[in-house]
Specification:
- The structure holds two protein chains of two kinds.
- Chain A is built from nine helices and 20 strands.
- By secondary structure, chain A is of the alpha+beta class.
- In chain A, the strands form four sheets. Chain A has a six-stranded mixed β-sheet, with helices on both faces. A five-stranded mixed beta barrel of chain A has the order 11-12-13-20-14. Chain A has a five-stranded antiparallel β-sheet with strand order 15-19-16-17-18, with no helix packed on it.
- In chain A, β12 and β13 form a beta hairpin.
- In chain A, α3 packs parallel to α5.
- Chain B has 14 helices and two strands.
- The radius of gyration of chain B is 24 Å and the shape is globular.
- In chain B, 30% of the residues are buried.
- The chains are: A alpha+beta, B mainly alpha.
Chain lengths: 376, 295
Amino acid sequence: MPSDYASGFAPWEDADATPLISFDGVTKRFGGFTAIDNIDLQIYPKEFFALLGPSGCGKTTLMRMLGGFEDVTEGRITIDGLNMAGIPANKRAVNMMFQSYALFPHLSVADNIAFGLKRSDMPKSEIQGRVDEMLRLVQLQKFAKRKPHQISGGQRQRVALARALAKAPKLLLLDEPLGALDKKLRQETQFELMDIQEKTGTTFVIVTHDQEEAMTVASRIAVMDNGLLKQVDTPDRVYESPNSVYVADFIGDVNIITGTASEVLENTQLIWAEGATPITGMTGSRVVQGEPASFVIRPEKVSISKDEPQAANKVEGKVIDIAYLGNMSTYHVALANGVIVKSQTANNRRIARRDITWEDPVWLSWTDTAGLVLRD
Amino acid sequence: MRRLLISIPYLWLLILFLVPFGIVLKIALSDVALSIPPYTPQLDLSEGWTGFRTFWAELDLENFWFLTEDDLYWKAYLSSLKIALIATFLTLLVGFPIAYGMANAPDHWRPTLMLLIILPFWTSFLIRVYAWIGILSNEGFLNQFLIWTGIIAEPAKILNTDIAVYIGIVYTYLPFMVLPIYATLEKLDGTLLEAAEDLGCTRIQAFWSVTAPLSKPGIIAGCFLVFIPALGEFVIPSLLGGSDTLMIGKVLWEEFFSNRDWPVASAVAVILLLILVVPIILFQRNEQKQREAEQ
């Protein structure tokens, strides 16, 4: 979780805070295809905002509209109070880090970083200093004279970041910035990115399809699907309190049990199988008594045991699969009606000491606030 | 097996290039004579070793000295260089926009445009140059059109001038300029231009700071592909050029066929080849550099 969030950075909860970016009823159509469907969204200064969704959900289009590479079909985008309609990319105080990095192959690392500065009103004498500062920021001083093809992928990524930050934009757009890096480097770079964001105080908007990446770096996440914002919230709320089955399913691993809602109070009872005790979960948004609903619960919130436990919710089943991940194991348990529920447990004992194995009859249990009942 | 495969192109070069070049060089070192073939000495193997020694002793550089004495030759070389350089530049001016337009055309149009560029090759080069006579002559289509539009009152003399030669060279060698430039422009990553705009460039600035430098290998390749054949061009200046259009290809032809002075003609050819070796080496170095950059 970003440190700024932990330290109480939450301008979106402050009614008096002025957003840096504001989308008002923004729609984008390509011919007959609606890529962005009537979106309202506010992004605040110094936020690290993630647009998350599967490919084709409209997240890249939304970002390109901020950068000035696509115009808005309907509605209005304002950045820092200025209506962006008709303002081309080269006139916006916005810079973009491209997915492919788009480094100029004929220019050295230093010249790539200086490219934007040379076309700004910065005096020539100050450019070199700014380039050095940027090279220091991304720790590439030694590589200033190299050409892009003479450095590694991770270094190229940092050059692209330095180039985009050189003009000190109000807003930095990052299009899948870590997509081309291998997993280990990606995790290191995520923290570096957060560090740089904090140091420079720039507002970052990142597009990603990697939910782990979004959870790690972002102060808020917008989950998108089919040109719509499904949920805009902090990473922990998106994970713990998804407002729809789509969001719950998209972020992380989840068990979904469908049924009918009954007794909608603070908690909701879900009738899910004939003759079985209803499941109790927290009432999510828009649940209506007597209507179909889904119970969603994260695998790590489901306990597994051989003996019948004392718990608000408990079901019996049989282990059909065990996924051993080293630090934890996921048990796939089939219930009597065929529904499969996953339970994830930390492996804090050595493997020989664990007593649950394939085909064992087991009990699954969880508290009545561990899961959510959501409308389908 | 691999050696055998590699040896095929080398053998080809040996038989069809190196051996004929040796013969030309030998003739260049000989003296003109009224005989068949019209030069001496000729190697008489029946006299054995002494025959070879007298043959060797009679070869000299006289013809090359002669080329420096008569200013016709170096003037012809210089004039050819000038015409080839200007023609190459003009071809670049015409070719680059064509290549740029092709590279930016919608995908489904590109094969058609490519075909249009290559199409003229389906007709004989000689016929196409002849056709230009019909267009450029005093009563030709161009003059008729210009008079009809009222731009000029009297037919302008275009045919049999250097202008006609430039038109001919630009027309003939245009595909050699367009295709390599198109190849580099087509590979150009469009996001580079977006990045340039994002960093504050206008479209035109983005062109000069990104597109132009990145298409340099294609421009250089195209220029050499036009310059090298244009330098030794013979057909275009003799059909479209005037009597005062001096090009080394024409001089060579006259020495060979009109004067029947094979040794001097051969010397002219050898010097032309030496002049061409320089741009050819530069061209290959450019190709090499481009390949390295792509790795």
